[in-house]
Specification:
- This protein is of the alpha/beta class.
- The protein contains three helices and eight strands, in the order αββββαββββα.
């Protein structure tokens, strides 16, 4: 009797294991990417501006500081996607994309991620606190960020602002959500460059496209 019970139990375990494996979804991994600066925004000349900008520190809220991509179900409810995750820590991903965008828009190779060598401190510093980065699939993505520009290794803040951006999510997939987020960071990078240009008279102005 004991032998038959043991065999039946093992068979049940095997069936549950096979069923579980058959129903496990593959995990997908995503990265923000640098996208083309929107048309009609200010463009840079082919020559390097020579400006040096320290990028960071960057802070993100705890609800975003996780591998899962966060979307919003309603005003008060969020969803953590267990099978759709960031391929790198979100803070590093944001820093990389902003560095790529700003290098292109400002025509400079002087973007330095935080922390940097104090003996080679950049001329300007950009610090930012991401307040919201999520969205509702098939609707829109939202980026809300508090940011500041400073000189003298952050001791002289000459511009600060809280900006909010939104982009239509053109589809129901998580890839569409990430693509909308990427477009928001492109727009945000252009806003940073515009204000940095206004407050940096020692550098040539960035001409606007016609």
């Amino acid at each position: 009797m004991k032998v038959r019970v043991s065999k039946g139990f093992l068979l049940l375990v095997c069936l549950i294991t096979v069923w579980g494996c058959a129903n496990t979804q593959p995990t997908h991994f995503y990265l923000l990417r640098a996208v083309q600066v929107p048309e009609n925004s200010s463009m840079v000349e082919s020559t390097h501006s020579g400006i040096s900008l320290g990028l960071g520190p960057i802070s993100i809220p705890k609800y975003l500081d996780r591998p899962q991509i966060v979307t919003r179900v309603s005003t008060h409810e969020i969803n953590l996607a267990e099978f759709h995750k960031w391929a790198a820590p979100l803070k590093e991903n944001v820093s990389r994309v902003l560095e790529e965008h700003l290098s292109a828009i400002l025509a400079t190779e002087g973007i330095v991620p935080y922390p940097w060598n104090r003996s080679k401190a950049p001329e300007y510093q950009l610090s930012l606190d991401i307040i919201q980065l999520d969205g509702i699939k098939n609707q829109e993505a939202i980026l809300k960020v508090r940011w500041a520009l400073a000189r003298e290794e952050g001791r002289e803040v000459f511009y600060q602002k809280t900006s909010q951006f939104s982009e239509i999510i053109q589809g129901s997939e998580y890839e569409d959500v990430v693509e909308a987020m990427s477009r928001m960071f492109a727009t945000f990078s252009q806003e940073i460059a515009d204000h940095l240009n206004v407050h940096s008279p020692s550098h040539a102005k960035i001409p606007h496209s016609k």
